[in-house]
Amino acid sequence: MGKNYVDIENDQGETLRYRKHANGRGLIAHGAKVHASAVVEAGAYVEPGAQIAAGAHVGRGAWIERDAVIGQGAQIAPHAHVGPHASVGAKAKIGVRTYVGDHAYVAIGALIGDDETISDGERIATDKRGLHLAA
């Protein structure tokens, strides 16, 4: 059986160690907290300080940056990017290749489509059809 971790050098020249999540084989940095029932697919990265709650699903190639919080049952589609300090509420859905900015907030149950950008610091909520509401 091969090793269960990978060492990767970041842009600042620091070496970060990532372990492979048992449920999906995505890479989880030391210092990140991912619930055992969450799925982090292969090719996804979860950075230090990030938290992923029970039942959440992080798709292939997604990137969850430092100190981001992903709520219970939230779904992050493949190749989405959740910025540092961002929060995605429980049961929210983030679309393919969507970017959630630094310190942004996506409300509980919000539906964010594919290829969208949530600006830094923006607070967003949607109805069940994905139409934007005041957050």
UniProtKB/TrEMBL annotation:
<dbReference type="InterPro" id="IPR001451">
    <property type="entry name" value="Hexapep"/>
</dbReference>
<dbReference type="Pfam" id="PF00132">
    <property type="entry name" value="Hexapep"/>
</dbReference>
<keyword id="KW-0808">Transferase</keyword>
<dbReference type="InterPro" id="IPR011004">
    <property type="entry name" value="Trimer_LpxA-like_sf"/>
</dbReference>
<dbReference type="GO" id="GO:0016740">
    <property type="term" value="F:transferase activity"/>
</dbReference>
<protein>
    <submittedName>
        <fullName>Transferase</fullName>
    </submittedName>
</protein>
